[in-house]
Amino acid sequence: MSSLFKRVHWLLLCVTVSVAAAGQLLPAQLGKFSTEAATQPATDPLGRDTPSGTIYGFLHAGQAGNYSIAAQYLQINAKRTGQGEELATKLKVVMDRAFAGNLRLISNRPEGTPQEGVPSDQQRIGVLSAGDVDADLTLAHVPDSSGAKIWLISSQTLAKVPDLYDRLEVRQLEAHLPKFMVEWLFLGLPAWQWLAILLALPLAAGLGWLLIKVLGLLGKLHRGQPLRTGVWQSISRPLWLLLGTMIHVLCVRELSLPLLYLHYYQLVIGVVFIIGCGWLLSAILRQIARRLRERALYAGRKGEGTLLLLGERVLNALIVIFALLAILSSLGFNMSTALAGLGIGGIAVAFAAQKTLENLFGGVSLLADEVLRVGDICRFGDRIGTVEDISLRSTRIRTPERSELSIPNGSLATMNVENLSRRDKILFNAKLDLRYETSSDQLRYVLAQIRRLLYEHPKVETASARIRFIGYDNASMNLEVFSYVLTRDNNEFLAIQEDLLLRITEIVEASGTSFAFPSRTVYLGRDPGVDKEKAAAVSHEVQQWRESSKLPFPDFASSDISEFSNSLPYPDPDSAVRSKKLK
């Protein structure tokens, strides 16, 4: 609900700004939104140097009741000069009630816009229609008293104004309203029309809400099951705004607003309608992207799901940009000039935002190649962390210290990334340092027993398991254990590694030797040295291997490996984990 309030607040703010802009701009200037017009100041004090300036200037003067000024926008013969104010009054009424056209399309160029079938010194603005009489509302480009060219409402149009005025239907509603509501004006508009516009707001909202409920019920009956609450609520809110807007337009159309105020109203409604359409498109896009992501994740394609999330964000940004351009166009800005400037500006921005674009395309390449997925544990250089989000600019990593690491996608695309989550098995590689007092037979015993341990352990890959005597150090003889543990889970690997290390320690202790310390040993006369009994027992066992030709060097026989492969009980019989499994 809070999200809805934020959107409504944003909508009201946009409407308020639009109303303020429409109310404060001089009507003679409303048509001069383009950059070209802004750089060419009007030479005529009444703004009649452009078609838009003439129309808006006339409407503004007429709305203010200053018909002596309004008459100066008319092309009147010298014989009818005294009839100028009366003619301006009738023309204002006819334009308010009988005009069909779009004021936003009026040219704001001093020379006008070429129109098919219209002379170059004229502009066709729209049509005036009352009863069975129709007349084109045209402007004529004529010289003024100083010789400068100005635009005036043509004499051909003015000739039909009296007939059009006589055929207008008299507004019956005002005759039944209190006199003060008709005569009291606010910003040139009667009080009853202001009241009707305000009352139409809750009416339109209520009817829109009712239509939404009906549509939801029809959808439920058609599907035979209830609509998804989250999906329908996401779409119904912008749909409610659009339906309410259209209903309000139908209500206001019956009020016969003055043409100038009707133009202001259309500007505001146009902005609201564009916002509603953008909101609806964004909601539909969000639901489609969510469904596609769910399918991708259900199928195990996490990279595709993340790429869809990135695509959704890009499309949402494009919707906002197009909505903004549409709003500017509806307000009368010359979008051809704006788009041309946008193209040139885009090149400049592309050069200035090389890093940003590099990060954007780096993120797309990462997701397309499925190098990373949200939830993967990876090593980035000397840092390890879990991928939490891949955005347009960067990838956020949660480190083991629980800090958040942000890496630009451009840098990440060129970085050597080690994805630990995609290991099919985990390497167990231990270095063992034995004392120099260890005899060769003791060393053979340790090697053979640890090798057998690796073969017997059910969680160690037999084919790749090995232990070798690799050399001498300053204070020890070095053995290396190399094997793969059959698990992908790091916690399980740590438990198996612990078990292997403990068993190796027991083997070393059983051999009668021990691990070397990183220090020098000073022997005194009373030092017993190596355990002679254990050493003798080990030597005896190794001798038996020799006599039976079963000395396991360089490795055990294949038949022996097959015999005791995976035969070691794991976990230990005394292990808490094993006791739970037995229960």
Mean pLDDT: 77
Q: Mind telling me the C-alpha Rg?
A: 43 Å
Percent strand equals 5-15%
Q: Tell me, what's the shape?
A: rod-shaped
- Count of spatially separate domains: 4
Main β-sheet, in a few words?
Answer: 5 strands, antiparallel
Spatially, the strands of the biggest sheet line up as 10-9-8-7-11
Count of individual helical segments: 20
Overall helicity: 40-55%
Number of E strands: 14
Query: Which class best fits the helix and strand makeup?
Result: alpha+beta
Amino-to-carboxy terminus distance: 51 Å
Residue stretches low in confidence (pLDDT < 50, at least 5 long) are: 1-42
Give an account of the 3D structure.
Helices cover 54% and strands 14% of the residues. It has 583 residues and is of the alpha+beta class. The two termini are 51 Å apart.
Q: Topology, please?
A:
Blueprint: H1 2-24, H2 27-30, H3 35-38, H4 51-63, H5 67-70, H6 84-98, E1 99-100, E2 122-130, E3 133-143, E4 149-153, H7 155-167, H8 179-183, E5 185-186, E6 189-190, H9 191-223, H10 229-253, H11 259-298, H12 302-330, H13 335-352, H14 354-368, E7 377-380, E8 383-390, E9 394-398, E10 404-408, H15 409-413, E11 417-419, E12 426-434, H16 440-456, E13 466-472, E14 477-485, H17 490-510, H18 532-547, H19 558-564, H20 576-582
Antiparallel strand pairs: 1-2, 2-3, 3-4, 5-6, 7-8, 7-11, 8-9, 9-10, 12-14, 13-14
